[in-house]
Amino acid sequence: MAKKNAIRFGDYIQAMAVDTQKVPFQELMPEPLFDRHGNEHPQRVPKMKLGGGDVVKVLQPYLSTRFIDQAKAVVPLALYLAIFQYAILQTPVLDASIISGGLFAVMIGLMMFMEGLKLGLMPFGEVIGNTLPRKLPLAGVLFIAFLLGIGVTFAEPAIGALQVAGSLIDPVKAPYLFTLLNDRSGATVLLVGLGVGLAAVLGTVRFLRGWSLKPLIFMALTPTLILSAIAFNDPELILIVGLAWDCGAVTTGPVTVPLVLALGVGVASAAGKGADSSLSGFGIVTLASIFPVLGVLCLSFFTKYTVSSETIIAAAAEIKSMAELAASQPEWYEVSPWTEVILGVRAIIPLVIFLAIVLFVVLREKMKNAFITYYGIILAVVGMCIFNVGLTYGLAKLGDQSGGLIAGAFASIDTISASPLYSVTVGVSIAALFAWVLGLGSTLAEPALNALGLTVQNLTNGAFKKSMLMGAVAFGVATGIMLGVLKLIYDFHIMYILIPGYTLALILTLLSTEEFVNVGWDSAGVTTGPVTVPLVLAMGLGFGNALGSTEGFGILASASIGPIVAVLTLGLYVQFKVKREERRLERELSQEGEIA
Amino acid sequence: MKRSFTTLTEATLITAVVQNGFGEVITDALLEVGIQGSTIHAAMGVGIRERLGALGVAVDAEREVVTVMVSSDEVDRIFERIFLAAKLDIPGMGFMYATPLLQAATYVPPSILSKYAG
Hints:
The complex is a heterodimer of chains A (596) and B (118).
Chain A: H1 9-17, H2 52-87, H3 96-135, H4 138-155, H5 159-166, H6 175-181, H7 185-209, H8 213-232, H9 240-251, H10 256-270, H11 284-306, H12 309-328, H13 336-362, H14 370-406, H15 424-444, H16 447-459, H17 466-490, H18 495-511, H19 514-526, H20 532-547, H21 555-595
Chain B: E1 11-19, H1 22-32, E2 39-44, H2 48-52, E3 62-71, H3 75-85, E4 94-101, H4 110-116
Antiparallel strand pairs in B: 1-3, 1-4, 2-3
Helix pairs in contact in B: 1-3
């Protein structure tokens, strides 16, 4: 027992080490206001006056954590490309200062866009997701989900990469590809959006009714593969197939997935099925990467039967001459930074207006924290514009350049005088290995994959470990990108990857259980972030141009099939292991029973 | 035969309400000096954005509440440690307090139990 006049040891230490000071909490409270009758008078929260140092202290962690998030995705990739180019291809990065400026713009733009998305657009999505199903019948909800699917596609940052890619295509060699990405690019994106909208509707219904994903996959893939095969046999459309399958990979980015999911989860919880909402996201992502392919293929058939290739080539020449004319005396909105700004505004504003109409007109809800929401929307628009500028000057330029230079490892190209630098075998292996490591690194750095890994680990009670899933997906993407690069080198058609790949995936789907089917097919969607997609797309096109092949699409498409096959295979293995373990346990139990 | 039950005395609960992501910073700082058993709860804060005005956008409304039970003798040292780890001297970062506990109970190792037995 402590003696009466003893000092606590803790008090002693404290008194020796720290100069403590006591301030009554009263000082932090606002003075209460009363009116004549003694009732408390309402008053506003007093504003805090901050000095310059404190402002910096408040802003510094806010900005730095968000910037570092984006830098983690961009800097290692860019360094990898630059070092590879310097060490193996013995060529310094051209326009290094412009590219670094562009990459910096990408980081700043993405940082602002992601924060704006979180503060400005997500609250809309959440409020709509929570209240819409209660106020409208199911058909109305699905209709809005459908429109939302279209809107989010236009707002997806990576979709701008398609337009950038389109400008690199030669209209004479591939007239239909040219028209789909240039004068008809609006229609292409719209069809992609229709696909995403349809996926949002089907995904929501599937979740409400508890349908299995397997028949949906078969129903969605069969017509897509058949149409691809028809296009493959058509000499004018054969080049479209790669683009169409690449579009599927572009759609499932940082805008689509959370907004569409918010609605899906809202519908599900309104129907009283919120309990297993962890699985609700699965399926929508898968369908959202298959339907756009179908949409783009349909558009290409439609274009083929309504417009002849001669008209397109003539129109392309006209566009070109007009562009040259415009280049001599450009309107202000045709000069480089402004085109990107207009693209950025055009991407976000329609989505915001659509969300606002649903919220204020259909639902008659009020927005809480309006100031923060406006700030978020402005941030998203500004971020998108900066990102678009960075996309043109940083990611697309860098990808195009290294793609073009890698060809110099085994073929003779103009930009490297000493090319081919290595013998064909060594050079091709270098290019393949380069692509493989690129795929592996960029996939492991993707934050969405980490989240998916955790979900899967929880769903399977630890049988399917997070690291295993991440490894499988990264391995799949890496192998897919490598196959895509080999496709460009040996100039074989993307169908030779897609047909065996998807056949294998379908067979594995039949054998696997429902959970692994969900996870496996969705893993393809999470890997294609806003940094990887433009870089890989531009790299493929630059590579294709340097080799003289007509189209450089298809790398993303083969990168999406890789993880599906890898995850499904691993899933079957895990299932097999779990079953064997169970059987062993049963045997031991029965033996024990016999002994007893 | 009487049942035996042990309660712990002279315990203080420290609660820190901090910005999202700082919960782990605190628990790490505590683990560094061998203090375990902290709990992190997710919470939403209200009001700081109004007080900071336009700067409020830099403050995450999502909060984490860390609670940890410590001996009353050690409370000042640990209180200060948490304050510094969570950077609570910056506006909008959060606040913390310590409350004395009447009694607490958990597993007590037999070696300590025997010291107080009888």
